[in-house]
Every structure is written in C-alpha cells, then in structure tokens.
Amino acid sequence: MRARSTGQREERQQAFKCGLEIHIQLDTRRKLFCGCATTMAEKEPTGVVVRKQHPVASELGEIDVAAQYEFLRDRVFHYQVFRNETCLVDLDEEPPHPVNPEALQIALQIAMLLNCDIPPEVHVMRKTVIDGSNTAGFQRTMVVGTSGFLSFKDREVPISYLTLEEDAAGIIREEDGIVTYRLNRLGVPLVEIGTGLLEGYSPEDVQEIAYTIGIISKSTGRVKRGIGTIRQDVNISVRPEGRVELKGVQDLGVLSKVIRTEVQRQLGLDTVKHETRAIRPDGTSEFLRPLPGSARMYPETDLPPIVLGKDFLAKIRRELPESWTKKLERFARELKLSDQLARQILRSDYLSLFEKIVNSVDVEPSVVASAFLSTLKDLEKRSGVKVENLTDQHFEDLFKLLAEKTILKEALPEILKDAAERPDQRIYDVVKSLNLGLLTESELREIVSRVLKKEHASAEKAVGLVMSQVRGRADPQMVIALVKEMSKSYR
Ligand SMILES: [Zn+2]
Fold first, then answer.
1. By the 8 A CB rule, do 399 and 363 touch?
2. C-alpha torsion 99→102→103→109, nearest 10
3. Residues ≥6 apart with Cβ < 8 Å to 479
4. Distance (Å, whole) CA 458 – CA 466
5. I need a labelling partner for 444 at 20 to 30 A (CA). Which of 11, 80, 371, 471 fits?
6. In the chain, how many domains are there?
7. What is the pLDDT of residues 89-127, one digit of tens each?
8. Assessment of whether the complete model's pTM goes beyond 0.85
9. Pair 287, 277: CB distance under 8 Å
C-alpha cells in the first residue's frame, strides 16, 4: 500500500489508513426527543442539577473497558439548565418524545445525497456513554443510511453509515472531580457520517473529502453554523496493528496537519496502543482514554421503530436540493463568481444565507460573498469581533440597505463590528448611531466646499482630505468628480 504521488510534496508521504466520523448539528426548531428549542442562545443558566453516575452493565451484560475507566475516575456531575432549552427529558426524568420528523427528514436528505441505502425501518438504539455528557448514561442514535459513496477525484469514497442522533451536553469545565456540563446542547439533533476505510489518499485529500461531506450536508440549507456545529473524529493507523482515534477536530482546515502529525507520532513508536486522543488547538494530540469496545448498543425500549413508507421516501427524493457540483457551476454562470469565490462560499457556514440574500435582494453577489468570507474573517482575526453574535436578520437588513444605496460597501466592516458588539441593536439603528448613512449630493458639496475654502488645497490633496471625512458615506468616484468640478471656482 502506497500513497499515490500527487506532486513533489507527497513524495515522502508515509502510507496510512484512516476513517472519518463527521458530526453535523441540524438546524431544526426543536430538539430530537423533546420540544426544547435548539437555539443555545441563553447565556446564563437558571439552575444547576447535581448528579453522580454509575456505569450500568448494558443489557448485553458487559461494561466495556472505556466505561470502567470512566467509572474509576469517580466524578460528580453538575448540569446547568436553561430557560426554554432544557426540560425533564433532558434531565432523564421523563421518557423521550417521538423522533422529531423535521430532523428525520433532513437526515434522510443527506443520506440520499450521499447515495446511501435507506432502511425500511428506523430503530432507535441506546449507545452507552459514561462520561456524564448524557444524563441517561446513554446516547440515542438511529441508522438512517448505509453503504453510500461520494465522488472525489474520479474515485468513489465509501460512506459506511449515516446516523441521526442526539448531541451530548457541552462541557464547561472540569475541576476537583466536578464536571460541569450545559444541558442546552443535549438533544440537539445531529447526523454522524462515517466513511469506510480510506486508503491511498494524502492528508490533504482526506481534508478535502471532509469538506465535501460538509458541503453536501450544507446543501440542504438545514445545518447549524458556527464553532462546534461540525466536529470530526479521525481514526488513523500506519501499521496493521494499533488504531488511534483522534477526537474533536473542530476546524476542518487543520485536519491534514492533524493527520500528518499523528502519522509521524505513530511511526516513532514501537507499539501503537488502541486509544482515543483529544486534539489540542495546535493540531497535536493528547491521551484521552482507551478506545471503547464494541458492546455498547442496545435497543431503546421507550420508542417503537419508525416505518419509512415508499411514498414518504419518494417525496423526499423528488425534493432533494441541487447537488453541490451543479451549484458550483451555477454560481459561476449566473452569479458571475470566480471559481475560487464560488468554492469558498460553498464551504462556508453562510452558504444558505448567502443564497437567500442574493435571491431576494438586488446586490452584487461577489460583494455579499466577500463580506461573508473576508470581511467577517478580518473582523474576527484583527479586531477579535465575535461574529457569531450576528444574526441572519442583521445580514438581511444590511444588504437591503446596501441595495437601496443607503450605505456603501466600504461601510460594511464598521457596521458589522458595531452590530456584533451590541447584537441587540437593529442594523438601521447601528447605521444611524455610527452616522454611516450615505451623504446626499448637497451635503457632500458642502463638505467639499468647506475643505477647498479652508485648506486652499490642490484638487489632489482635497480629495484625500474630503475622503478622510466621509469615508464609508460617499462614493469615492463622486468625491473626485465634485472636487474636480468645484475646485475650478476656488482657484
Ligand atoms: Zn428538552
């Protein structure tokens, strides 16, 4: 087995086998097994429930290695509860409600887009989890698709399975034997997509495959965006014995580096232990726990199987969203996006919002795309702006003002920054309070006239002086034209 050479950089690439597990949160209104909202918007918990968990032998009569390991750590769990976002189901004090049909439908769409076989019935199963991240001690999961594939570089990448499951509670901190979780994430629907064994690919290829799975899922327009909404695990082995699972890669862009680092680490070891490792922010990893055994699944007795009728499935198939390859072509043809910009927006979390805006507002698609791609990234990196505070409504209002020529595109960064810092404001109020509305021609004439009178400046210098006063509020071409016209009378 040898990695195919895809250029000089790959020449010394060590062959490896890997498998991906990608978890993607679905953007439904309600959780998977209860009526709670999936917004995760509440900042402050309304209370804390304290529990201690004990591993229970599963109905198959075994407690696996991973469970025992967690048990030995003997910890206490604090569960934060939130208004509208947690209920008795989340606390495991009420049986689960029937599976949220909205979530099932999105999961089926993704399974079909990945060419999976769809089972005639969906069975809810329990998967033992003893790290406290599920109050019940298990996670509910159901297989929605098997044996699919996606096309990548003239090959078919095998997709082993797609499951619909409930997300676990999010960990806040762990100190002095107390683990604090927030329960608002518990029960948010997510799909887990598992690839078959990937062999003969470079780390960059594997990263591209992960991106492609993300793009296919996003094409439903029904997945959540932001940090932590897509998480992936990768299993890697360089030798027949010894498999390592790397858990929790949150940024798809570092996956190739993570794989490269792990391949090197394993090559430097005499024997590779079967274990789960957590990814550090720098792309290296640390030991988390032994790799879980396989006796972890048993049927959920509180919920009957769901029969997937032929007509129901046929309807979903008929209404499948446009494939991402078609979308890419259309973005170039109809929206006149460059190939690079089109590919970037397809990968972006803002894909569906981008489409909504360019379909409803008369504004240059490339301007919208670069706002989502570069402006937001700049604000985040350079000014530490929390762009996740910005809502769909903020963006829709912003581009409406741009289309109406109430503001200029040069003003976008400043408006977005202020809106993200005080997200309760509406965009109209931000524009007003920052005084970033476009100047009328007579207002602009007044400013030009003042500069020319006071500064006795040359036309060239006057343009600079005027621009520094009106940046973001006047079209530079118009400033140049007015200065040119008006400077004649001040000579
Ligand atoms: Zn709930």
1. yes
2. 130
3. 444, 448, 463, 466, 467, 470
4. 12
5. 371
6. 3
7. 999 999 999 999 999 999 999 999 999 999 999 999 998
8. no
9. yes
CB count, 10 Å around CB of 357? 24
191 pLDDT above the threshold of 90: yes
141 CA from centroid of ligand 1 (Å): 16
Q: What are phi and psi of 10, to 5 degrees?
A: -90, -5
Q: Is residue 344 part of a domain?
A: yes
Q: Which two tokens stand for residue 3?
A: 């990695």
Residue 1 resides in a domain: no
Instruction: Tell me whether residue 307 is exposed, middle or buried, using C-beta atoms within 10 angstroms of its C-beta: 0 to 12, 13 to 18, 19 or more.
Output: exposed
Q: Bridge-partner residues for 148, per DSSP?
A: 159
Supply the pLDDT for residue 68.
60
Residue 298 has φ and ψ, to the nearest 5°, of: -150, 160
Same domain for 189 and 237: yes
Window from 101-110, 161-170, 346-355, 391-400 with minimum mean pLDDT: 346-355
Q: 3-state class of 247 per DSSP?
A: strand
Indicate if 63 and 99 belong to the same structural domain: yes
**Last residue in a domain, options 299, 333, 368:** 299
Going from the Cα of 81 to the center of ligand 1, the distance in angstroms, rounded, reads 10
Residue 99 covered by a domain: yes
Give the residue numbers spanning the domain of 411. Answer: 322-433
State how far the Cα of 330 lies from the Cα of 379, in Å rounded to an integer. Answer: 29
- Domain boundary (299, 314, 349) is at 299
Task: Give residue-wise pLDDT tens across range 312-324.
Answer: 999 999 999 888 8
Buried b (16+ CB within 10 A) or exposed e, 197-208: ebeebbbbbbbb
How far away, in angstroms, is 187 Cα from ligand 1 center? 7
- The answer to whether position 314 is within a domain reads no
Give the H or E element holding residue 429: helix 427-433
Q: Please indicate, yes or no, whether residues 378 and 230 belong to a single structural domain of this protein.
A: no
64: left (phi over 0), alpha (psi -120 to 50) or beta: beta
Residue 33 C-alpha to ligand 1 middle, in angstroms? Answer: 7
Q: Are residues 331 and 276 in the same domain?
A: no
* Cα-to-centroid distance, 299 and ligand 1 (Å): 21
* In a shared domain, residues 381 and 400: yes
CA 1–ligand 1 middle distance (angstroms): 49
Domain identity same for 205 and 350: no
Gap from CA of 139 to ligand 1 centroid (Å):
14
Helix boundaries (H) for 268-389: 310-318, 324-333, 339-347, 351-360, 365-370, 376-383
Identify the residue whose tokens are 């020449």: 11
Residues 375 and 405 in one domain: yes
Neighbours of 252 (CB within 10 A): 17
Distance CA 133, CA 243 (A): 24
Q: How many CB atoms lie within 10 A of CB 107?
A: 30
Distances 468 to 406, 471, 489 between C-alpha atoms, Å: 19, 6, 22
